[in-house]
Predict the structure.
Amino acid sequence: MSTTSLPVSLPASESSARLREALLAADFTADGLLELLGAPAYAALARSETVPALRATRGDSPLETLVRLFLLQQAVPDRRAGAALPLEQCLADGWLVREDAYGDGASAAVRATVDVRPYGGEEGQDWFIVSDLGRAVGGAGGAGTREEGVVLGVGGASTTLAGITVRAPVTRALDLGTGSGIQALHAAQHAVHVTATDLNPRALHFTRLTLGLSGAPEADLREGSLYEPVGEDTYDLIVSNPPFVISPGARLTYRDGGMGGDDLCRTLVQGAGERLNDGGYAQFLANWQHVEGEEWQERLRSWVPRGCDAWIVQREVQDITQYAELWLRDSGDHRTDPAQYAARYDAWLDEFEARKTKGVGFGWITLRKSGAEDPSITIEEWPHPVEQPLGPVVRAHFERQDHLRAHDDAALLAGHFRLADEVVQEQIGLPGAEDPEYVVLRQNRGMRRATKVDTVGAGFAGVSDGSLSAGRILDAIAQLLGEDPVLLRDRTPEAIRLLVEQGFLEPLD
């Protein structure tokens, strides 16, 4: 465990508005940090390397003072702190505490009690994420050793979930396992009412600080596990970056859910169906086991609640040794006594062996409450680069599923389609050859998919601008290729469906 304990008390939220004014006045924003530190030091800070940022903040401007206080967790003299923020109020409300003396041994000094990190909003807003000192992912404290009850700041998982979330205006949104409040902050921009829950009461307090310091509306904060705090309430949007780590026991609240294997993620997903309003979305980050003798896709298919469409994307798979080492490093166990580290490593492998787990998958799970008797469930592996934000792509995926479900082959051929934006065609073959060996359609946005098509598929996609029905386009292609138009109409709808499903073609009717 860490040699430093978590603060017993946390800052009061009443002074958030005044502190926000001071932070903005000093340009303590994502853009301001990049300009002050420069790209190399800014990137180094994200890697937990603080020396470049310390060198870049040796002056006495308010911005340099705030960086040293809230990002680098350095003590600063009273006079510098007083020039950058409302000092006495920040001391009274617990944002700062006094040090006996500054490094020169003479000056009075103050130190921050929490990490305050500038965070760029969806439309250029200046937000601030508040977390425990040194626990902002990529923060000054680095990975370090985690205490029970610690509240982390912004990390890759947080921003991934925020990016894939559907941002339609809704009445009620739920952030389940809110942590430092990042998802609740995003939801507050397009939901009338936001409820945020967490088993850790410290996390709820940090969420209140994050919302207040970011100028966002207050949320309904509820303490408790999983869906227990919300009872039978229903929502238009549910989001969760849960403590999904599959571990032997529950040492750390922020990552270990306290259930065996991937039961916590399964419980979250299965319980979402009855708590979603019609047309509502539930979006999760999750881990799942790859078990001997079982297809991982079928494991996840069994999680999908009745009446919901689903799109599940596996982004990464780790073998059990990689997975154990990742989370042992995250908790700082690699810095403990070697015998203790080996014992904990062994306990992880015992857990996986008992569950016949050969690997662990990580990815995104999105549900949409459709009420369809024949739900659309797409489960795929996609480890390739994507372009965030993907929220509009997720929404469009389910809209296309609705269209395909409602159109049989005859209706599909009577429909009109257009080639999606940012799709290009690549012809692959030997130099100088009269015809390509094959043709590839490639998306330059969103999921950045690529798919091989035959001559008919390439020709169909190339002329799909919405002016002609699919059937008429196929008749023209049949005439050009000297094929029977009836046979071409019979065999092509399946290929059209695939191009629509993957987002290469957009239905216009």
Notes: The two ends are 60 Å apart (CA to CA). DSSP finds 19 helices and 19 strands in the chain. The first strand starts at residue 76 and ends at 77. Residues 30-46 form the longest helix (17 residues).
